[in-house]
Design goal:
Blueprint lengths: L2 H7 L4 E6 L8 H8 L9 E4 L5 E6 L5 E6 L5 H12 L2 E7 L5 H13 L4 E5 L20 H12 L17 E6 L10 H13 L4 E6 L3 H13 L6 E5 L7 H9 L5 H9 L3 H22 L3 E5 L4 H11 L1
Parallel strand pairs: 1-2, 1-10, 2-5, 5-6, 6-7, 7-8, 8-9, 9-10
Antiparallel strand pairs: 3-4
Helix pairs in contact: 4-5, 9-10, 10-11
The structure holds flavin-adenine dinucleotide.
């Protein structure tokens, strides 16, 4: 079922989760062990992130170095199929522009269609750690909107090769990312929102947000979107703080603010177990307020912390 259908049929706020593919070398049961404790909440769907390959240098026997491309977390499409088969719930693969040619993207979308996966979250992806800015593949999509449009063209039976006549029509429901605190490369929120509107006007059916720790950022974002006639569902993405280190790591990686009240409480903690308690309590309050506000779905980034997420969701749903 499409994400938009789940939301349209819902009588109350839904819950969904996001997982990372297991590290290469782990088997699928490691993912099931992570997800099993969350199934009691009957999530409407599970998102599975996509991870581009990274360049690494491996030492050879003669002490010289070899440059290798390693994808540490492969398997997004296969994992989505496995989740749908094992739990009988929808799975939403993330697809990114980075590292993909348009033809590889087309093939991935064909695989998804054959597997009966009609949902996809289309993203640009970030630059690899060793590159200063995002550079698409020479024949790849540049922005998320380009990838999204490629999926939507396939919904109209249009494939890259123009000798494909009457191509089979796919049925993708496409979501995109939104940033209540602005995407870090955008010069200001207004310009970022203009690009978001372009994505929605071109066919994005819902927006999933970057994590935030201050609900007022989400409320203001929703308000700005509505004023600009961006009327699709805006799904808040949520994550608990669980370690003291995250006070600096999360702002650096995700470009989000930690409210003073939360950071002060975390700084007083004597252990990460205490931080987990403080972070969980904060997210419970955030979740309750978002539910009251009428957020269509609460989407939790589980990031290997399913027991923490379970305890939070138990308090909210
Ligand atoms: P875009 O929409 O392409 O925007 C990128 C930047 O370009 C923004 O600053 C925007 O303002 C600007 N822009 C947009 N369109 C145009 C245009 N037409 N012309 C000029 N400028 C433009 N990354 C992964 O690698 N894998 C994942 O699984 C993943 N999942 C994510 C899930 C969510 C919910 C979110 C919020 C992010 C996720 N990311 C993931 C990270 C994401 O790929 C990065 O934040 C990336 O830097 C931007 O992606 P985007 O889709 O928002 O890009």
């Amino acid at each position: 079922m499409k994400i938009t259908e789940h939301i349209a049929q819902a009588k109350d706020t839904l819950v969904s989760f996001e997982v990372l593919p297991p590290l290469k070398g782990k088997i699928i049961t490691s993912l099931y062990e992570h997800l099993d404790p969350l199934m009691e909440f009957k999530p409407s769907w599970i998102n599975v992130t996509y991870h581009r390959a990274e360049t690494m240098f491996k030492r050879r026997a003669d002490n010289t170095f070899e440059k290798v491309e390693v994808r540490k977390r492969p398997g997004t499409v296969g994992i989505c199929a496995a989740i749908m088969n094992y739990y009988k719930i929808d799975a939403v693969p993330h697809l990114i522009c980075g590292g993909f040619s348009k033809r590889e993207t087309e093939d991935a979308l064909i695989d998804l269609n054959f597997l009966g996966i009609d949902n996809v979250l289309t993203l640009r992806g970030d630059a690899p750690k060793n590159e200063a800015s995002f550079i698409p593949e020479p024949d790849g999509n540049f922005y998320a909107i380009d990838l999204m449009k490629q999926a939507l063209r396939m919904n109209n039976g249009i494939y890259i090769d123009d000798d494909i006549r009457d191509g089979g029509k796919t049925n993708f429901c496409v979501g995109v990312a939104g940033y209540p605190e602005k995407h870090f490369e955008a010069p200001n929120l207004e310009i970022d929102l203009n690009y978001l509107k372009e994505k929605v006007d071109a066919g994005a059916e819902y927006i999933m947000t970057q994590m935030f720790f201050d609900n007022n950022k989400y409320f203001a974002f929703v308000d700005s979107c509505r004023k600009m006639n961006i009327n699709v569902p805006i799904i808040p993405g949520l994550k608990p703080l669980t370690t003291k280190k995250q006070l600096s790591v999360l702002p650096r990686i995700f470009h989000v603010d930690i409210p003073t009240e939360l950071s002060n409480s975390v700084m007083k903690c004597k252990s990460d177990a205490e931080v987990e308690k403080v972070g969980s309590e904060w997210l419970v309050q955030q979740s309750k307020e978002l539910k009251k506000f009428g957020a269509p779905v609460l989407h939790y980034y589980t990031l290997g912390k399913s027991s923490v997420i379970r305890n939070i969701v138990k308090e909210v749903f």
